[in-house]
Design a protein that fits this description.
Blueprint (H helix, E strand, L loop, with lengths): L5 E8 L5 H11 L5 H4 L8 H6 L6 E8 L5 E8 L7 H9 L3 E7 L6 H12 L3 E7 L8 H9 L3 H5 L3 E2 L8 H11 L12 E10 L3 E10 L2 E2 L4 E3 L4 E3 L3 E5 L3 E4 L1 E2 L4 E5 L13 E4 L18 E7 L4 H14 L4 E7 L3 E8 L2 H15 L3 E3 L6 E5 L5 E4 L11 E15 L4 H10 L3 E8 L2 E9 H4 L3 H8 L5 E12 L1 E8 L2 E2 L5 E4 L3 H15 L7 E7 L2 E8 L15 H20 L6 H9 L3
Parallel strand pairs: 1-3, 1-4, 4-5, 5-6
Antiparallel strand pairs: 2-3, 7-8, 7-16, 8-15, 9-14, 10-11, 10-16, 12-13, 12-15, 17-19, 17-20, 18-19, 21-22, 21-23, 23-25, 23-26, 24-25, 27-28, 27-29, 27-30, 30-31
Guanosine-5'-triphosphate binds next to α1.
Enzyme class: hydrolase
Family: Belongs to the TRAFAC class translation factor GTPase superfamily. Classic translation factor GTPase family. LepA subfamily.
Main location: membrane
């Protein structure tokens, strides 16, 4: 029976431990692709992935492996992203797998993301195949890494641990053999009604919404009438197929197969990952529970440059289908016009989306300063407003108190930089809740305001630990906080899109730095303009943005009285016009808000 010959598995690892390289080797050794093709790291084909050298979006590929026992197996490999912001993608791809290769870089050993991904795999009841990578590297510490892996769980303590170089291919054959020996075959029923898990989706500009599916029970035939159960939508069944790794059409997908269906849906929002695909006439009795929606951490406004609102809207719709942790609603700002308030899993996720808009859709967006969600309790009505847009933050006179989100974070670091890491967490208002060891690393647990880790915390942590420390975050709860809204006024008029929320105690120092930066980033005009930071109606920081030219009327040059008077008249006319004129806001201006650190 074909089902017994299928293995569905993922590769999980810490960032840069070599998942994509191993995926390439597997495709090469199973002749799915040629060695020449694999040079280009086929799985990482999105431009943004190549620019950052990382995997953002999960990919799936079917390989046929001729095993040493003479049997040909179908290996469905699901590549997963490794960055901490993409844990959500990892958990989706794991739901479609039966096993996971736990890949650990021998030069780095077990890292925090190794542990986090292992936990996700265990939650999905996957069989784990531990593999040590980069054994060819002079800095490899293979025995030490092996001890660290064994210390992770009782099962791993006894497991056979494979040693490979994904780069040279050494040891990869043994891993290919282990895959069919260690991982279970899919367990579904051939005779039952069709039940398939939608574990990912993609928008194609010609073909519309394409769903990535794993057949759990029954068969899917081309043309069969099918529907999505949660969305209760009938879909067309014009093309089904598998990934080789490009899409290749087939007539049928059977139990255990991983492939795709072109749904005919044109609206990217009409399909949700986690939905169940089933037969329209003979539906399965029980649908999948669906995925927990991702918990967004950071919100920011995206505004089109060059009047491309409609193009931006379409692109954002498509990206949010392709990446279900990225969501949006429409918003309007007086300063910037129509735009979108978007949610992200973290600041790195935001950057990736921004780059994808540029690379894949040719769109430049203006991004406002990111913020977290606040719960604002109002005085008179006892109403609680959920605010993730500083523009909508209620006036201070109406506010009873505000709650801000807190996160539990876990930093894994080595001893050498422990002091600096703790100083960083302190500076960001972290309260140390626990401290322990994992393998030879120190694990620190903090409770910390989410706003403190939402922006540059991760980069700061990477930089003080020379790239080694890792960060895992988890939303904890809301807690009352003394936060205020800072409004920025330029030439006495408030620019709404520049508003942001900050802890009251940090407001004086932050706004001083901000106005200094604004002095250099706000485009100069012919007249001087004050830039002010206003908190609760009071200006707490101010700087004068100098005019473009020297003020000829007062600079002491020898001029006739009448010439000076003429200049003064012209300047006062400029000033009056200025009140009406719009300040052109560049990305630099918004970045001034982000850059300020205490
Ligand atoms: N020396 C050596 N280098 C390797 C080996 N495997 C991968 N690398 C290198 O390690 C780096 C990261 O490899 P990738 O395969 O891109 O890592 P990844 O885990 O897919 O990275 P993300 O997708 O960003 O999580 C690349 O520069 C690879 O060339 C190996 O076996 N030996």
């Amino acid at each position: 029976m074909k089902q017994n010959l299928i293995r569905n598995f993922a590769i999980i690892a810490h960032i840069d431990h070599g998942k994509s390289t191993l995926a390439d080797r597997i495709m090469e050794q199973t002749q799915t692709i040629s060695a020449r093709e694999s040079k280009a790291q086929l799985l990482d084909d999105m431009q943004v992935e190549q620019a950052h050298g990382i995997t953002v979006k999960s990919r799936t590929v079917r390989n046929f492996y001729q095993a040493d026992n003479g049997v040909e197996y179908e290996y469905n490999l699901i590549d997963t992203p490794g960055h901490v912001d993409f844990t959500y993608e990892v958990s989706k791809s794991l739901a479609a797998s039966d096993g996971a290769i736990l890949l650990v870089d021998a030069t780095q050993g077990v890292q925090a993301q190794t542990v986090a991904n292992l936990r996700l795999a265990q939650e999905n009841h996957l069989t784990i195949l531990p593999v040590i990578n980069k054994i060819d590297n002079a800095a490899a510490e293979v025995d030490k890494t092996e001890r660290e892996i064994r210390a992770l769980s009782p099962k791993l303590y006894e497991a056979k641990i494979y040693r490979i170089s994904a780069k040279t291919g050494k040891g990869v054959h043994e891993v290919l053999e282990a895959i069919h020996q260690v991982f279970p075959a899919p367990s579904g029923q051939t005779q039952a009604p069709l039940k398939a898990l939608v574990f990912d989706s993609f928008y194609d500009s010609f073909k519309g919404v394409i769903a990535y599916i794993r057949i759990v029970n029954g068969n899917l035939k081309l043309g069969q009438q099918v529907k999505l159960m949660a969305a209760n939508t009938a879909i067309q069944n014009k093309e089904i197929g598998v990934f080789t790794p490009s899409r290749t059409a087939t007539d049928e997908l059977t139990v255990g197969d991983v492939g795709y269906i072109i749904t005919g849906l044109k609206d990217p929002t009409s399909l949700r990952v986690g939905d169940t695909l089933t037969d329209a006439n003979q539906p399965t009795a029980e649908a999948f529970p669906g995925y927990k929606p991702a918990q967004p951490m950071v919100y920011a406004g995206f505004y089109p440059k060059d009047d491309a609102y409609r193009d931006l809207e379409l692109a954002i719709e498509k990206l949010s289908l392709n990446d279900s942790s990225f969501q949006y609603v429409r918003e309007t700002s007086e300063a910037l016009g129509q735009g979108f308030r978007c949610s992200f899993l973290g600041i790195f996720h935001l950057q990736i989306i921004r780059e994808r808009l540029k690379d894949e859709y040719g769109l430049n967006v203006l991004t406002t300063a990111p913020n977290v969600t606040y719960r604002v309790h109002l005085k008179d009505t006892n109403e609680v407003q959920i605010v993730n847009n500083p523009i909508a933050f209620p006036g201070f006179a109406k506010i009873d108190y505000v709650e801000e989100p807190f996160s539990n974070i876990r930093i894994t670091t080595d001893n050498a930089v422990l002091g600096d890491v703790m100083k960083l967490a302190d500076a960001h208002k972290g309260q140390l809740t626990d401290m322990g060891n994992q393998a030879e690393l120190i694990v620190l647990h903090y409770r910390i305001p989410t706003a403190e880790i939402a922006y540059d915390f991760f980069n700061a942590l990477k930089s003080i630990s020379h790239g080694y420390a890792t960060l895992e975050t988890e939303f904890a709860d809301y807690e009352p906080a003394d936060v205020v809204k800072v409004e920025v006024a330029i030439n006495y008029s408030v620019v709404d899109a520049l508003s942001f929320i900050v802890h009251r105690e940090d407001a004086p120092a932050m706004t001083q730095q901000l106005v200094k930066k604004l002095k250099h980033t706000i485009p100069r005009h012919l007249y001087p303009m004050p830039a002010q930071a206003i908190v609760e109606g009071k200006s707490i920081a101010r700087v004068d943005i100098p005019p473009l030219r020297k003020n000829a009327a007062v600079n002491g040059e020898k001029r006739s009285i009448s010439k000076k008077q003429a200049l003064l008249r012209r300047q006062s006319m400029n000033k009056r016009q200025a009140e009406k004129s719009n300040i052109k806001l560049s990305q630099d201006v918004f970045d001034s808000i982000l850059d300020i650190s205490l």
